[in-house]
Amino acid sequence: MYEPLDAALVPRFAGVPSFFRLPFLNDPTLVDVALVGVPFDGGTTNRAGTRHGPREIRNQSSLMRRINANGVSPYDSLRVADLGDAPINPINLLDALAKIEAFFKPIAAAGAVPITAGGDHLITLPILRGIASHPVGLIHFDAHSDTNDKYFGDNPYTHGSPFRRAVEENLLDPKRAVQIGIRGSYYHESDLDFARATGFRIITMEEFCTRSPADVISEVREIIGTHPTYISFDIDSLDPSIAVGTGTPEIGGFTAREAQTMVRKLRGLNIIGADVVEVSPPFDPSGLTALAGATMMFELLCTITAKAK
Amino acid sequence: MYEPLDAALVPRFAGVPSFFRLPFLNDPTLVDVALVGVPFDGGTTNRAGTRHGPREIRNQSSLMRRINANGVSPYDSLRVADLGDAPINPINLLDALAKIEAFFKPIAAAGAVPITAGGDHLITLPILRGIASHPVGLIHFDAHSDTNDKYFGDNPYTHGSPFRRAVEENLLDPKRAVQIGIRGSYYHESDLDFARATGFRIITMEEFCTRSPADVISEVREIIGTHPTYISFDIDSLDPSIAVGTGTPEIGGFTAREAQTMVRKLRGLNIIGADVVEVSPPFDPSGLTALAGATMMFELLCTITAKAK
Amino acid sequence: MYEPLDAALVPRFAGVPSFFRLPFLNDPTLVDVALVGVPFDGGTTNRAGTRHGPREIRNQSSLMRRINANGVSPYDSLRVADLGDAPINPINLLDALAKIEAFFKPIAAAGAVPITAGGDHLITLPILRGIASHPVGLIHFDAHSDTNDKYFGDNPYTHGSPFRRAVEENLLDPKRAVQIGIRGSYYHESDLDFARATGFRIITMEEFCTRSPADVISEVREIIGTHPTYISFDIDSLDPSIAVGTGTPEIGGFTAREAQTMVRKLRGLNIIGADVVEVSPPFDPSGLTALAGATMMFELLCTITAKAK
Amino acid sequence: MYEPLDAALVPRFAGVPSFFRLPFLNDPTLVDVALVGVPFDGGTTNRAGTRHGPREIRNQSSLMRRINANGVSPYDSLRVADLGDAPINPINLLDALAKIEAFFKPIAAAGAVPITAGGDHLITLPILRGIASHPVGLIHFDAHSDTNDKYFGDNPYTHGSPFRRAVEENLLDPKRAVQIGIRGSYYHESDLDFARATGFRIITMEEFCTRSPADVISEVREIIGTHPTYISFDIDSLDPSIAVGTGTPEIGGFTAREAQTMVRKLRGLNIIGADVVEVSPPFDPSGLTALAGATMMFELLCTITAKAK
Amino acid sequence: MYEPLDAALVPRFAGVPSFFRLPFLNDPTLVDVALVGVPFDGGTTNRAGTRHGPREIRNQSSLMRRINANGVSPYDSLRVADLGDAPINPINLLDALAKIEAFFKPIAAAGAVPITAGGDHLITLPILRGIASHPVGLIHFDAHSDTNDKYFGDNPYTHGSPFRRAVEENLLDPKRAVQIGIRGSYYHESDLDFARATGFRIITMEEFCTRSPADVISEVREIIGTHPTYISFDIDSLDPSIAVGTGTPEIGGFTAREAQTMVRKLRGLNIIGADVVEVSPPFDPSGLTALAGATMMFELLCTITAKAK
Amino acid sequence: MYEPLDAALVPRFAGVPSFFRLPFLNDPTLVDVALVGVPFDGGTTNRAGTRHGPREIRNQSSLMRRINANGVSPYDSLRVADLGDAPINPINLLDALAKIEAFFKPIAAAGAVPITAGGDHLITLPILRGIASHPVGLIHFDAHSDTNDKYFGDNPYTHGSPFRRAVEENLLDPKRAVQIGIRGSYYHESDLDFARATGFRIITMEEFCTRSPADVISEVREIIGTHPTYISFDIDSLDPSIAVGTGTPEIGGFTAREAQTMVRKLRGLNIIGADVVEVSPPFDPSGLTALAGATMMFELLCTITAKAK
């Protein structure tokens, strides 16, 4: 088992800012959970900057301790380490997608569960290409469905389209896909047609407001069942009061308490990977968005702990 | 019908930042809804800066798309455009009030509904002078009642007094006036006496916390009825976690979700104009307040759409 | 009775920024409530900066008026003034603790109730040494229990340990101590053992989320009873969306409305002192954390008013 | 003699932020030099915010010590204190001008030399009305001549016109007026005609770049002679790299070293007052502009010390 | 002739933020000088964000007046207008290059001189493709030579390589190319080999420090002669004290005064176009970099005025 | 030889932010130059925050390349690596001093030259205790002499006193000590007495302004000679326009070009260690101060390269 640096010996502002102050390792066979950065924002259609996300999330993750507020203690039962950043290419989108996919393949092959800090939402596509041998389920927290088709002419790969591509590539099983918190304004009335037609369950923010987090997650668990499932947490699912540092903020999002409650209630599912994406440090003057991202990564780790024990 | 620039062709960081990326027009007879900026903060008693509000709200309004999360699509049924900024005078308050009034008169004469980005709250007074031929109803979201009398000696015109002046000038019907979210501390126990004596319904934040947004708006609709009504949305009605960039922030305000819910439930009323005021960019390092302002303007537009169709 | 500067005569950006624009006094026998700054952060284990807290809280307290939104008007019945900053020593922790204690002793001797702006949470220890002649009750809003033992070897005095020391020194009666909002992650499963073993009632954020503020405070009042009690309000009990400028932010905290509601419901208790700690201006680019701190100080003053009349 | 708080006893972040940590006094007869704030920005034609200047300059002035780098020690020979803020009126320009003038009259009557922190540049006009019984000389550091005539129609009083008004009102002797550092772009070719026609010596930045500070000041001293003279230091005379927090920044200004050198070389002149204006804290995220303003005020005090001894 | 909005009638914070407050036009045949934005940062190898450059440069250009400090008055003799943003594609580099080139071709065909606000430095390549019918001279202010070859494998198009590509494509005549201010650290000793071998004259910052701006420009004019020449001004040629908001800041750059002096001394040359690139607003908390960019664009316009009259 | 990550393969925003992207090593015997962080600010008398310096300097050091602008290429001849942070104790000053000294002893014993990122200036004392077996020379760039005696009573160890202690402890030879750039205001006329009496050569900023950097360094080299010498670079020696993020900024400092020139001219001396101290990230909203710190560390490394080859 790997342990974070002890903050009562080495203060949290000291030392190398790895994820949760865990060791850096190169070999995925040595871990149960691989913490990874993917500093890529080449799929961003508006405000860039998520390429700086992994570094600042690591920085802020110094504030995390060993055990979450629910008493889950991941490092007691799991080997968790920082596997560094996936190689990317900031000026060549297709090369970047290939490099990311290639980085995740050996992680999956080693049986490790990756928890990734993005990067923009397009990175979920090559991650799924790398780890999803069969169509997997999806639990997706987001202000946007990200199932658009093409942008700026005929370009299929952007942070607005990863889940459409993933369905088309048979990486996702849309019948086991749930999107929670959708609330952004739309370009066209048909924006959600693809998702709905293929079977995604979309729980808009308006619906969420009429239910409790517990109730919503109870439905999610029923849809997801026991098959392999991926969790994608777009930081813009949170309200911008807590997460302004993102490319496409939409007011009216989840409070941190709602998000923490929902993620904690996902314990016991068959999670093969997770990510926290769209943290954009240049738009985050207080660092709070990166802190929220780091905290949600830690909560995801705790949620996965249940399964892995 | 005018259309926003298509963000899948022209990215949202490109092009002229008009309101919602709509065309700039000069002629109010060409529109059903006139989007206007009033960059005036000469009535501000403490922290100035709302003179920069219209420009930054326009900037952030690039993030809005065509249809709100409730499926309301204003540009399908309404001619909406940016009519630019009202002329003002930053060093001569009375001249500014006259100029603003003169700008709004032809808008009202053309039958267009103005949605205005301030500026401080004093601008509501000359807007009402310009568009209210008879006493109108008022739906007023704010942390403060803004019905004070005089400041700094004998000065009647400040952003703390517009609604008192509007009642005195017979522009507002106080029996059809509702103020929601009042929560600032008071100078004197009598601070709300004028409003209460003349018939305003004041729903304090404390009362709001014991009721649901739906319940509150249901009462509002009953008070307002079907007569012409103006909506004034002071950004400081929102909690400063989402709107710190304002002159007189008061903690404990509306969440964005509460505000969005309330504004959406006002559809179908007889709205003759609306404003979003008190966004002060120099106090808004993250730009979030201007984004909240732009979003509330868009929600107001969607609310008005119902009536105008 | 002392009165704040009248904001309708002297604008709030003008004049000396004392707490709530009240007079500066040196003699505690002239006041019923003593507003004090303790600009000390020598007990901070991670991000320093709360030494700048008193100055910025005073700055933002210019925004407070005379009467809170509940109609409580402290200056009608209480003599309240700014007694300046306690002397401290930024490079010698033990000397600082002695100086702070010595400053508070005459305040207590004069029968005045101190409301203090920190500084880090360690300052509560010397304040209690100065004012608690017998073990007192504690109402403690915080993300962390602050009952740890030693840091960085054998160092007993940090902002993570004041309440453990206070119990050991017989300043606090742990059977009459309540901690509300605890939610930070833990170093060890035993982190709360001392508090629980000695009798603290810990209401975690998770428990809080299942109850109403009114319900929680009702239990608190029962535990506290009528004996002398101290209130300590760590600004990190608030969600970082409203209070990012603090040394150890934890997402998922109280909304301002929840905090205001709870503090207001404490009226009538036998309060011998209160503090607002951990406001760290260097991490607060918008000034909102200091505003929240100033507002909570004003609410504490209003709560104490009830008793003192 | 009054002394600043000793920073080796009371750290500079503690205590009331008066100018240079000197006492607050009300009676101008007790001082040789009166430090005054004029928090007024009602004459500002573009970006407001200098109303917050005095408070932030006081804050940053905590960093000043007793003796400047040249060894001038003002508090050994002069009684210097903070006389607080002049009363102003943020929404009534003419009332503000009258109030400011009335505040400075007794200072001049007492024979004290005022050093003022603005506020926008219009405040120099009422200061001169208050203290200049005969036309005085002027040493004016600025990016702009501020001798324009009318703005926004027929408005004579703005921060672009104080020196034209002062000449017209016989407060300034234009034959003994020097403007140094003028470099802003112009509206019209005639922008400097009034100044030049009446006799101002204008040393543009372009000319300055070809000479040394010593050479320039030598000419200034010759023009000014031994008669009473006022020094007005607009913070925008400095390069915005050191003073971005101002309403009308112009790149290409003085370095701090050049400005310090010039002000230091003015010692021995017959200075009846001085000001540092146009520090606008809302546009100063790092606080550096206020620090530059505080430092220049201290240098002006040291320059005046020579005469007063 | 087109004129900026008159700031004495319409304050500079009001109205549409076009370049220098000039009209927006679509037709290049109507202008002598075309002001253009190219919001593209797809060639950026490290910190992105220059896609937001044109909008913020336009914003800050509101501070420019009609005539520069040297008395050059461009709008008296030239038709100058804002031609909007070139179309780009944020996720497809080659498509973006084609679109930019296509936008500039008709500008050149109309005989108008484009002055462009970037965008990253790669945009100079498609601009030259659009306007350079024969190899042109180059006056290039920069911290970096930008004549590298490939990045991230075999990618030829980045903001580190435009001038190498331009030479290879016969757009630039390296014998008439001067680079001034080069000072960044190097990857390899051979980093400048291509430039030197092909004939560029490189005036490093170290050399610059030993000469005067006038002396340097005198050499530049000799090299450039009377043939068509392009000026490219990378904002990182300025010291980051005045231009921190850029992707690759290097301390030790030009002061604003040095840069203004050099650009002003280029008058009379045969300039076919110019650009100001690498302004990155997300890294520019004070807005000063965009102000410097806007000012340098205005100085370039004044420099070009000489030729065009 | 160790090499930085290649930025043309791994972009500079990716990967672990070690100093200059070099490997992390634990064993000082493997290096010629040891890059070290000392995240300690317990000696700070005013604004803290330099505990965060090493992390942000590492972050910004990603912008450095392999070879400085003068062509010095340290990694060709020297083994350079990041040895991590010295252990410190944020709440116990004496323990911190002991820990820092203990960390540096084996570095000196291994014959490696440490280049350290602070931390406040007090850290130079334990570094010298660790590495100076005989009294060494000192080249000290600073706005302040840092040879004060006691603070806050009888406390000898602060960031204002390290060089006095070092002389007293026989770590420094004051006859071979030069301080350059001293310009802060003084508490007492005697502030420099100790330094001058013991033999320090103090070159104030005022003197510096009358000489060239080359001239100054020529004198320095004569004083220092060929004996072992330490270089201490306080970031506040730079003008705050380039280095506002520091505890005690003083306007009127070195430009970056002056500082780079001076450090470069120190090549060939017998340097046994160097530091860059007083970078305080919480006061550095743009990150520029940390970039300046990283660049000066790189220049120091290049300067040392000459000797070590």
Number of helices of chain A: 10
Give a short account of the largest sheet of chain A: 8 strands, parallel
Q: Which of globular, elongated, flat, extended, rod-shaped describes the shape of chain A?
A: globular
Q: Unreliable runs of chain A, pLDDT <50, ≥5 residues?
A: none
Along the chain, the helix and strand elements of chain A come as EHHEHEHEHEHEHHEHEH
Q: Output mean pLDDT of chain A.
A: 96
Helix content of chain A: 25-40%
Known CATH architecture of chain A? 3-Layer(aba) Sandwich
Rg of chain A, rounded, reads: 18 Å
How many strand elements of chain A?
8
User: What's the CATH H-level homologous superfamily of chain A?
Assistant: Ureohydrolase domain
Structural class of chain A: alpha/beta
Largest interface: A-B, 37 and 33 residues
Report how far apart the termini of chain A are. 13 Å
Number of structural units classed as domains of chain A: 1
Oligomerization: homohexamer
Q: Quote the CATH topology of chain A.
A: Arginase, Chain A
Beta-strand percentage range of chain A: 15-25%
